[in-house]
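Journal club prep, notes for RB
We'll compare a predicted complex against what the paper describes. Inputs for the adenosine monophosphate case:
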Amino acid sequence: MSTFKAPKGTYDLLPPESAKFLAVREAIAAPLRNSGYGYIETPGFENVELFARGVGESTDIVTKEMYVFETKGGDRLALRPETTAPVLRAVLEANLHKAGNLPVKVWYSGSQYRYERPQKGRYRHFSQVGAEAIGAEDPALDAELIILADQSYRALGLRNFRILLNSLGDQECRPVYRAALQDFLRGLDLDEDTLRRAEINPLRVLDDKRPEVQQQLTDAPLLRDYLCDACKAYHEEVRDLITAAGVVFEDDPKLVRGLDYYTRTTFEFVHDGLGSQSAVGGGGRYDGLSEMIGGPSLPSVGWALGVDRTVLALEAEGIELDIPSATSVYAVPLGEEARRILFAKVTELRKNGVAADFSYGGKGLKAAMKAANRSGARYALVLGERDLADGVVQLKDMESGEQTAIGVNEIVAELESRLG
Ligand code: AMP
């Protein structure tokens, strides 16, 4: 063991388990790629101000959870706690949002960093796949994103998840609601911190998970009773579109994203087998974000799905992903001459697209065959002294145990035909 350990709140992805993470990322990415989303990658760190403005000065993420550091050049940077603001920053910087080009649809996959109290499903380094559709106000776009997330979870075999849906209204109706909620909150028995939050960002109080707070919120006014006609119509259209797509959801009138630039559609995917960290993904409309970071008005919608929690959800449902064995052919040379020949054959197989591996380190037959077994290869190739003299190689079918001698010069073609 080394003297070092992975930092608190982090863990390493190791084979073979790591294959699940790749499969989850791929399952989330595939429907996006299939729906006009292009891949975007932004740096792992950004100017700290981008998050302060883009995520919100009053959020836990910004006040408590960001990894902030100063560079030798004096820049104040933060490891990204989320990727929506960076994506929008990148789109604006590269001028992708030209008229005629909207919406800009992009997806990303990457690490996020939050200094949170670690527990199962909550880490300081975690991974998300996200999608953003920037610069269009169209209920079909909100519906598209919800449908695609649902599709990727279903493709993974997940069933015990629920989609919670709400509308947060817009600049017209939300202020009226906000005032009504504030009036209500002022009459409650809340600690000072929460009362302060109620003044700055009352919607966030609805999101307070503490039972003593939740108890008092039973009769809180609900945004859905305050929606203006335009927001109501928009929300109905989103609901109709996802219903028509066969996606089941629950209306959750208390679901909020407590930032001012979030508007209208908001949703969360929760999994019932995960305990307290049950949100596997979430998103919504953020029509005001572009202006908050100095851009033009660009109504947008997006989501981020957590890869770590999706893997935990798979485990909670006992789902074994069908991950094909990485290796099809495993070559076992016995001796120097055999090594040169088989190494060339393995190289040729790989060039032709056959997944092949090799017994390195001069292992004996027994140890090498064990390694062949572990690799999950369908075929082993064994080349010993006598085979060399005969110009053949032993081709062993690892499933049936059947062994055939094949001419050294025919072996590549033979394997290709057997593996289809
Ligand atoms: P958020 O960006 O907070 O809306 O989170 C979106 C998704 O990212 C959540 O639903 C989780 O699946 C995942 N996530 C957020 N924070 C963490 C964390 N600390 N550890 C693991 N996954 C997280």
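Talking point for the session: The two ends are 43 Å apart (CA to CA).
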